[in-house]
């Protein structure tokens, strides 16, 4: 049993209190430790992903208790890929936060950032539903702190809405867990997958309620319409690096849906037949449409990006809700793309804010550093809208391809294609108003021009963009890996046998006392 | 016994949902507290209700109650307590800052426009 798999949880968990206690007043030391820790996380995540690339499953028993009784951490291809994605994203976001000086505008940014990473990474690695709840709470409570970082009335108000919405989500999660435990007597995911099969077809009320409640909770996290109302305000008001990191938080919801609804309540399961397979796809299509219409209607750049995140989550959910190996592979490819593209756009909107002091979609005099910022916005918008040559186009192509044999294929094609057109319009309007028309306005010589964003800020944004390009260039390889992951998800034999049949300690024999 | 616990959960949840749907921060926070009480009792009942039995298994014991929901409830209580403290502080900060404790976006708010409104 290798201990490396717990490192992504333990490392930030130790680093964060250290930063608070020992480096409280030294922003320099905080930065060094935070960056070093995150870089170490990237290395650990990469090695974990490499270890499971042959289809093996990493497995860790906390306290050595055997599986259905003790809590377990499980790393298969999907969870290690999400861990790698999170830590790489976190490294660039952290560099941006340092480069733009966001981490100095309030206290404890780095400590909260590490706690946030701990929660997200733990949620990806855990093999136990209640533990998933605990890690959700860890990531949420850190995100509450990050969301209101640097203060301000508008931000606090959006923070209250965000926290309230998520508290209600947590309560729903507990209700779902209680009903699942009452029905099956276990919360270990692999054990649940086996026990749900045994439920008698005439006594499915409890488990059906539990399955729907659980899906609602994950849909809140994934910002699926009509549960998306928390997202636009909180992402728009949150500090830009935090919003960029939050790009992975919606994916935690998507990951949980993929995990639970392919392994436990998988599509062929009779007990939950006719529930999520009926209405999840229409809901996903509506969120795709609403997100992209929001892009067209937004009055501010950050809100525009927030709506594009809803739209791209809708796209991910469209792919997930078909629940076939091909569509899940497309969803996994699109999840990586959508995380990176959303983060790039949030960072670009902050570059605009730095360059001219606000993010209103109105024509103003050219901002500081306009050429580079405009170029990055252009590239990010192409990626998000799904135009060739970037990975958004390939991802959409895969989703459309996976939709061929669905009954709703006409609807899927129509809404995906028309919403792409709407988002292109929205981004084109925003780009021309903010960057292009700016040259028709005479700059006010008396007014003080804001300083241009720092080189590190540009480098971090550019680094994320380089990842997007790599995601496009190596699309074949990434899609191959995603296909392997999807096949593993639909045949969870390796996962369940590893979890349930690895011996661990059950109870101590009496002689030892 | 079952009826008593079930109706207690039901009344707490109903009152909680009613309060959560109010417009001001304070009733909403109270509503969330009620909801978390309801869910704690609910979790407790998910291991079946047993009277006068210890949550410990050993060879001499013939009746016992399921210990796992008790552990779950403890975790849930700690988490919901912490979360309530956080939301009280953030809500207080928002109220002191803008002198307004509405949960939704206000139309006449200075500077910030409500969502979707011109």
Highlighted features:
heterodimer; A: 513 residues; mainly alpha; two-stranded antiparallel sheet; 19 helices; 2 strands; 2% strand; globular; B: 118 residues; Helix Hairpins; 61% helix; elongated
Largest interface: A-B, 33 and 42 residues
If you average the pLDDT of chain B, what whole number results?
Answer: 83
CATH architectural designation of chain B: Orthogonal Bundle
* Assembly classification: heterodimer
Radius of gyration of chain A: 23 Å
Q: How many helices of chain B?
A: 3
Count of helical regions of chain A: 19
Classification by helices and strands of chain A: mainly alpha
Uncertain segments of chain B are: 109-118
Q: For the residues shown, what is the average pLDDT of chain A?
A: 89
Structural summary, described in words:
The complex is a heterodimer of chains A (513) and B (118). With 513 residues, chain A is an all-alpha fold. In chain A, 71% of the residues lie in helices and 2% in strands. The mean pLDDT of chain A is 89. Chain B is mainly α. Chain B contains three helices and no strands. In chain B, helix 1 runs antiparallel to helix 2. Chain B is elongated and about 65 Å long. Mean pLDDT of chain B is 83; it is low at 109-118. The A-B interface holds A 130, 134, 137, 140-141, 144, 148, 151-154, 156-157, 159-161, 163-164, 167-168, 170-171, 174-175, 177-179, 181-182, 232-233, 297, 299 and B 20, 25, 28-29, 32, 35-36, 39-40, 42-43, 45-48, 68-69, 72, 75-76, 79-80, 82-84, 86-87, 90-91, 93-94, 97-98, 103-105, 111-113, 115-116, 118.
């Amino acid at each position: 049993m290798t201990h490396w798999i717990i490192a992504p949880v333990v490392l930030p968990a130790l680093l964060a209190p250290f930063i608070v206690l020992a480096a409280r007043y030294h922003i320099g030391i905080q930065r060094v430790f935070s960056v070093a820790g995150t870089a170490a996380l990237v290395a650990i995540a990469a090695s974990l992903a490499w270890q499971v690339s042959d289809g093996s499953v990493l497995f860790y028993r906390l306290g050595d208790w055997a599986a259905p009784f003790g809590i377990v951490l499980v790393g298969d291809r999907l969870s290690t890929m999400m861990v790698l994605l999170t830590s790489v994203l976190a490294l660039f976001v952290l560099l941006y936060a340092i480069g733009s000086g966001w981490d100095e505008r309030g206290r404890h940014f780095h400590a909260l950032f590490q706690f946030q990473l701990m929660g997200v990474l733990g949620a990806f690695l855990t093999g136990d539903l209640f533990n998933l709840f605990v890690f959700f709470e860890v990531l949420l409570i850190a995100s509450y702190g990050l969301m209101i970082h640097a203060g301000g009335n508008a931000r606090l108000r959006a923070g209250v809405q965000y926290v309230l919405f998520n508290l209600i989500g947590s309560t729903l999660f507990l209700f779902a867990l209680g009903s699942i435990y009452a029905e099956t007597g276990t919360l270990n995911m692999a054990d649940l997958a086996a026990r749900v099969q045994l439920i008698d077809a005439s006594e499915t009320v409890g488990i059906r309620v539990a399955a729907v409640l659980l899906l609602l909770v994950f849909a809140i996290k994934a910002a699926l319409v009509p549960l998306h109302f928390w997202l636009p305000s909180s992402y728009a008001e949150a500090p830009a690096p935090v919003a960029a990191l939050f790009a992975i938080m919606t994916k935690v919801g998507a990951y949980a849906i993929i995990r639970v609804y392919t392994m436990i309540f998988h599509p062929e399961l009779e007990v939950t037949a006719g529930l999520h397979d009926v209405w999840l796809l229409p809901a996903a299509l509506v969120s795709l449409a609403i997100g992209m219409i929001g892009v067209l209607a937004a009055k501010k750049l950050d809100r525009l990006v927030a709506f594009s995140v809803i739209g791209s989550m809708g796209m991910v959910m469209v792919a997930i809700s078909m629940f076939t190996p091909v569509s899940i592979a497309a969803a996994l490819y699109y999840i990586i793309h959508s995380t990176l593209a959303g983060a790039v756009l949030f960072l670009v909107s902050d570059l605009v804010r730095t360059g001219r002091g606000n993010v209103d979609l109105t024509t103003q005099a050219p901002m500081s550093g306009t050429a580079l910022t405009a170029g990055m916005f252009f590239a990010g918008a192409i990626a998000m809208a799904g135009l060739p040559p970037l990975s958004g186009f390939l991802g959409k192509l895969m989703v459309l391809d996976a939709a061929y044999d669905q009954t709703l294929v006409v609807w899927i094609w129509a809404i995906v294609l028309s919403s792409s057109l709407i988002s292109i319009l929205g981004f084109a309007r925003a780009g021309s108003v903010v960057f292009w028309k700016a040259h028709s306005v005479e700059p006010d010589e008396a007014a003080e021009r804001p300083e241009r964003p720092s080189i590190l800020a540009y480098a971090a944004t550019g680094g994320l963009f380089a990842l997007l390009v790599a995601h496009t260039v190596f699309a074949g390889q990434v899609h191959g890996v995603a296909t392997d992951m999807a096949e593993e998800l639909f045949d969870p034999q390796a996962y369940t046998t590893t979890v349930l049949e690895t011996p661990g300690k059950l109870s101590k024999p009496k002689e030892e006392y | 016994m079952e009826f008593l616990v079930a109706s207690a959960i039901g009344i707490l949840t109903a009152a909680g949902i009613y309060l959560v749907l109010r417009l001001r921060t304070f009733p909403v926070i109270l509503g969330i507290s009620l909801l978390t009480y309801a869910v704690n009792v609910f979790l407790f009942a998910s291991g079946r209700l047993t009277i006068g039995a210890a949550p410990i298994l050993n060879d001499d014991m013939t009746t016992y109650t399921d210990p796992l929901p008790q552990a779950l409830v403890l975790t849930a209580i700690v988490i919901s307590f912490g979360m309530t403290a956080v939301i009280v502080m953030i809500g207080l900060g928002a109220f002191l800052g803008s002198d307004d404790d509405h949960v939704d976006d206000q139309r006449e708010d200075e500077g910030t426009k409500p969502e979707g409104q011109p």
